[in-house]
Design goal:
about 290 residues, alpha/beta, 2 domains, about 35% helix
C-alpha cells in the first residue's frame, strides 16, 4: 500500500483518534513513514476549538502540501473537517480529501466530492446517511494498537450533552455517547500488549469531552457506579506487567459536576487509597491506585 504520515493537532482526545486511525491504516497495509516527504498518504487530524487552533490547522495543511512527495495524497480529517467540510474543501484545493469523523482516508478526490461530507461520530447516525455504509466506521470503537510510551490516553466517551455558550463541540462531536466499561478495559488490555522495544505501560489517562458525565447516557443517576467499576477493574493492573507497586490513573478535563461522587465511588469500588485531587474547578486530576 505504501507509507502514511499522520500529523495530530489539538487535544488528547484527538491523539486517541489518531492512534486508532493509525491502527486502521496499518490494518489496510500502510506502514508509518519516517517523514511527510516519503509518505504516499499524508493525513492532518485538525483542531477547531478556538481561532488560534483553526489557524494552526490551516497552516499545517499548507505546509504539508508543500512538503509532500509528488503524487502523495493529502487528507484533512478531525474537527475542522467535520465542522467545515464543504467550506474547507472549497478553500483548500491542495487537499485531495476532506474526511469527517468515521470516514475512510484512502478515497481519491473524485470519489470524495460526494461522499466526504461532514458526518457524525455516532455509529447509528453515520449509518443513517444514504450511501455511507461502505465507507464509514465507528471511530470511538476502532481497535487500538499497543502503546509505544509508558502512558496512554483512553477515551471513555464521545460528545457532550451540555449547551455552553462558549463551546461549539456538541455541534460537531454530537451528544454524549459513553462506552461500556468492558470496551474501555478491553482497550486497556490492547494497550498493555507491549511491542518489542516499547516500555511497560504505567499510566492510563481517561479523557472525554465531559468526563464527569460518563455513563449518564447509559445508566442515568447510576453513572458514578459505572465509572467507579471501570476504575476498580483497572486497579488490577497494579503489580502486573503494566507496572509494579502502583498504577497511576488520571482524568483530564472533568467538569466539576458529579466530581465528588466519582472520586468517592472510585475509592470504595477499588478498595484502594485514592489521593485527594485538587478542588474544582479543575482541568485535570490524578490519583494513584496502590497495590
Amino acid at each position: 500500500m505504501g507509507g502514511y504520515w499522520l500529523q495530530t493537532l489539538g487535544c488528547p482526545k484527538n491523539q486517541v483518534d489518531s492512534d486508532k486511525l493509525e491502527g486502521h491504516l496499518e490494518a489496510q497495509g500502510y506502514d508509518r513513514a519516517p517523514d511527510p516527504g516519503s509518505a504516499d498518504l499524508v493525513v492532518v487530524n485538525t483542531c477547531a476549538f478556538i481561532e488560534a487552533a483553526r489557524q494552526e490547522s490551516i497552516d499545517t495543511v499548507l505546509s504539508l502540501a508543500e512538503r509532500r512527495a509528488g503524487g502523495a495524497r493529502l487528507v484533512v480529517t478531525g474537527c475542522m473537517a467535520e465542522r467545515y467540510g464543504d467550506e474547507l474543501r472549497d478553500a483548500l484545493p491542495e487537499v485531495d480529501l476532506v474526511a469527517g469523523f468515521g470516514r475512510e482516508l484512502v478515497e481519491l478526490a473524485p470519489m470524495a466530492t460526494a461522499s466526504a461530507v461532514s458526518v457524525s461520530l455516532g455509529a447509528a447516525r453515520i449509518a443513517s446517511q444514504p450511501g455511507s455504509q461502505a465507507h464509514a466506521f465507528d471511530l470511538l470503537e476502532l481497535p487500538r494498537p499497543s502503546a509505544r510510551a509508558p502512558w496512554a490516553y483512553v477515551k471513555v466517551a464521545e460528545g457532550c450533552d451540555r449547551i455552553c455558550g462558549f463551546c461549539a463541540i456538541p455541534s460537531f462531536r454530537g451528544k454524549q455517547r459513553s462506552r461500556s466499561s468492558e470496551d474501555v478495559l478491553a482497550e486497556v488490555d490492547a494497550l498493555r500488549a507491549t511491542t518489542d522495544g516499547a516500555p511497560p505501560l504505567r499510566e492510563i489517562v481517561l479523557v472525554a469531552q465531559d468526563l464527569a458525565s460518563y455513563g449518564r447516557d447509559r445508566s442515568g443517576p447510576g453513572r458514578g457506579t459505572r465509572i467507579a467499576g471501570g476504575i476498580a477493574s483497572s486497579s488490577k493492573m497494579a503489580g502486573t506487567p503494566c507496572g509494579t507497586g502502583s498504577t497511576m490513573l488520571s482524568s483530564v478535563v472533568a467538569i466539576p459536576a458529579s466530581y465528588a461522587d466519582v472520586t468517592a465511588n472510585a475509592a470504595r469500588a477499588s478498595r484502594q487509597r485514592v489521593a485527594r485531587p485538587s478542588p474544582p474547578p479543575f482541568a485535570a486530576i490524578s490519583w494513584a491506585i496502590a497495590a
